């Protein structure tokens, strides 16, 4: 941390800690300073030098090729990695279909795979990746327990579906079978995750939305949408079917053929009745559907809601009584990495967890896998808004420095614990995956 | 004529032959082989099974997808044919200078220099519920409710196809029209033929090859498309190409390969019928 | 019916002019929408309504994006396009010459070329991808994608060459040979200049088809994306009207190039008439 950063944030942080119950007591002076520090972080990331940890020198100018979806393949991260570590990160952004495809079929075309956990379940057993030795990671201990044992807090319930911890570890350095308990060998180092729910246009829905079943309300005929990526869409559908009371599942994350039939049957019925306007496949499509008013209620990602709102259009990320559908992604190493490049990849992934990236992702509305390191890189106000569900004291800026939320705003869905604590299921790959995909195709052509 | 095993012609055709062998024949062979393999969610399992074909040929998904695809192909073909013929006729018979013809033709091609992906995205603000077309119609009072069928429907899919492929119909028809001896038309007129008779009995038969070449372009491109269907259909509609694309993205390569083989056979049968009607080499 | 002589326009002329104008409007509809929306204000989105008017996105095009890399992918697409263009021109020209004589296997090769054109693109992509995978070769934009693009551009090239040579008058060559020109001299001094405009056509086809190719490149581009793939990848995060700015610039640029060609052509024609 630089001195200027510390000086600017400490008073705000101190007063925030001193009186968490009543944030209005924070002095005006510290608020201004806090806001100043915030924009220093957001805009002038170059101003923060003198990183406390000393990163290895020998990896300078090593080039690593990373691919993934546009969600986390951000140029700012590559720039910062160059600054802090000296490595060259070459990023390739792909659509989510192409990601799984490339991971399996072109293992030599990348060094680091930025993939989701449900994709990992398909990709890792193909033997194209190598697990990571957690003992080489200084920041391993900072990773949220959600990714280690599936429990956000010691007494929380493990959600259904492909929960990250179930595919997070393997038995040994050259094993391809997922371990039941945490081991020293991690398949993906978690980086980014979130809880998804329905996004709505409060100005156009005209009533309170409280359950996943509301998406099937005939009032929204021709104005609803869900995701058209089978592994994710089927989970949306399951949340809906369960909420409507039409299907009861043993395990939504691992349905039987009969459960799949019923779920898809429900979707086909709705499609015949013209309930859906479109299905979306990419972040961008979901934003455009909502911003253009084509759709007023759809399953949505939190940053997509923010993107609609930043255009001055009312959009709400609506918490629902059944809970959230969550997803998580992480970084994995290609099998072919050895020697200096492997060292560089370890350094890079460890650095990824060390806070700067985490803060960046938090500011976009995702969550960092190592929250406590990210906290050091966020102002107290930012932390309060994004993670603690508090009203923003000053304007909340996006990483590019645009105003995302005005002072006084409270994040939809509340705090980190509130959101991630109410995950009902994770995106998943089921045992009956082949069958499910065939049924999904049937649904799409129907 | 040198008809030996290795002539100059063979050497001259060698680069083309090698390219096609390497990037067409071998890959298709691989697809055919893989279509008999088994698979699970992350890998190919070499073998010889007929499951992929069995599922494909008995599944309602296949029939529905083919039905959709034929529907798109035939509607697009009919519209582009009438539209393309009219445009070509206009350019060939009504525009009198070559320079003007070239200029108007160039004008038709300019939109194609902008990336297809970008053009596709821009249909939403044009045809959407609050798009330009609806706003215009609402403001003129022609409609009271925005038209929903303009976007994410069969209509929008066919519209995009017509937009993309009409030029492929115009070009060959225009080409053959330019080669029609104008004296034939004069002769027909002098013999007392009415304008519509000249059109149907002189011009259309003489344009047969152009019409067929254009039809081949349009039909084959629609049959294999997946990008247009997925974007303009809003994910609600599917064609054979899109089903293959979905299978590929889910790493179900053998299933995709089997679908691809069936699609290939379908397209080839369609073409064989068309080639019966015209010798494409002579007519270019 | 159109009269080729006389100045009186038949009624069909006006109907067809109207149709042509409508067709132009239809063709340019998306281009116009792109044009208008590329002037969105800094907070504007990809759809209407307009959120202010500015040149912000044109400026933004030349700065680093949050996701994706216009510069790199554009360079790759351009290099690939130029490479494909050169190969297409040379290969089609050679094959065009080959087909002026009969040779064993000519029919097979012809139908193979046609097949290459009409086989669904997704199949070529899948096939080449699988082949490289099975052979253990790494796909790259300059190897596998290059081949995939050639399967798309070569048929167009060959068909154009057919059209050219079908209408080529061999008496020019005969005359040249009678005057004692060698075979090579005949080709270089007589044939090539005569077919040069068509060769330019083949080259342009090669460049533009490759530059905008998406489906055949999808599975074979290797580590780095071509421009169309990059644009598609960028839509996995918030895309901004910067895409439209790119579209508008390309359209304006191609307009300029085409206008330049038309002007140059008419100037050279006038000069020829003078001499």
Could you characterize what this model shows?
The complex is a heterotrimer of chains A (446), B (284) and C (275). Helix content of chain A is 37%, strand content 17%. By secondary structure, chain A is α/β, with parallel strands linked by helices. Chain A folds into 2 domains: 22-195 and 326-375, 3-Layer(aba) Sandwich (D-Maltodextrin-Binding Protein, domain 2), CATH 3.40.190; 198-322 and 415-445, Periplasmic binding protein-like II (D-Maltodextrin-Binding Protein, domain 2), CATH 3.40.190. In chain A, the strands form 3 sheets. In chain A, strands 1, 2, 3, 4, 8, 9, 10, 11, 12, 13, 14 and 17 form a 12-stranded mixed β-sheet that branches. Chain A has a 3-stranded antiparallel β-sheet with strand order 5-7-6, with no helix packed on it. Chain A has a two-stranded antiparallel ribbon with strand order 15-16. The N and C termini of chain A lie far apart (57 Å). The relative contact order of chain A is 0.16. Chain B has 284 residues and is mainly α. Chain B is built from 15 helices and 2 strands. Chain B has a two-stranded antiparallel ribbon with strand order 1-2. In chain B, strand 1 and strand 2 (44-45) form a beta hairpin. The longest helix of chain B is centred in the first third of the chain and has 35 residues, at 60-94. The two termini of chain B are 23 Å apart. The model of chain B has no long low-confidence stretch (mean pLDDT 85). Chain C has helices at 11-37, 56-61, 70-98, 106-118, 121-135, 144-166, 171-178, 183-211, 227-234, 242-274. Chain C is globular and about 70 Å long. Mean pLDDT of chain C is 83; it is low at 1-6. Chain C has one domain (69-274): Orthogonal Bundle (MetI-like fold), CATH 1.10.3720.10. Chains in contact: A-B, A-C, B-C. The interface between B and C is large, with 97 and 96 residues.
